[in-house]
Every structure is written in structure tokens, then in C-alpha cells.
Amino acid sequence: METAHEQQEEYAGAAEIAAESGPLPVEVTLRGHFEPLDGRFHWYGRIAADEALDQAHRSGSTVTLRTPYGEAAGRLSDKDPWGRFRIAGLGTPPF
Question: Is 52 helix (H, G, I), strand (E, B) or coil?
Fold first, then answer.
């Protein structure tokens, strides 16, 4: 699934969440930045509201997020008023 590209600080588009029943397609908006205080890349963003995602995962779940450029483990947290989960991770981002 790896596609060569220049590393970016943001990504918006198609992605998938790895699930026991197979990949779950989602739409994401992600951003990130290098944090000099801890020396790591912090990435974060929102996953578009999705009923299948709501049924498969809860706030606090750790998931594998894949984009056409890579994959990374991220942690789901609060949902906003529009039903979008927040996701965040450390290290190499999935974009």
C-alpha cells in the first residue's frame, strides 16, 4: 500500500481502519507537526461520521489507520457534535 511521496504535514481524503471483519473505509482530515520538546512527530485529526465505525469502536480504542501513503496506530478519542471521532498518534504518520 506504500506509495512514494514527499512527507507532508497534512492529509485529507480516503483512508481505512483495520477491523477484524476487514478494512473499514473512512474519510479523514489529518495534520501533524514535529515536537522538538520530545523529538517526535505528533499527528491528529478527525474521521468523518460513520455508523460502521461507531459500531466497531469506542472512544479510547487504539486502531490502525491506513491511507494510500502508509499506516500507523492511532487512538480514538472524543466525538464532536457532528459525530466525528478525533484520532491522534505519535511517530511516523499514515500520510
Answer: helix
Average per-residue pLDDT in the chain?
Answer: 90
Which helix H or strand E contains 51, and what residues bound it?
Answer: helix 51-56
Provide the residue ranges of all domains of the chain, joining segments of one domain with +. Answer: 10-90
**Residue 13 amino acid letter:** G
φ/ψ of 54, rounded to 5, equals: -60, -40
Q: pTM for the whole thing?
A: 0.85
Cβ contacts of residue 33 below 8 Å, gap of 6+? 9, 41, 42
pLDDT, tens digit, 9 for 90 and up, residues 13-55 = 999 999 777 899 999 999 999 999 999 999 999 999 999 999 8
Give the HSE-up count for residue 80: Cα atoms under 13 Å, Cβ half-sphere: 10
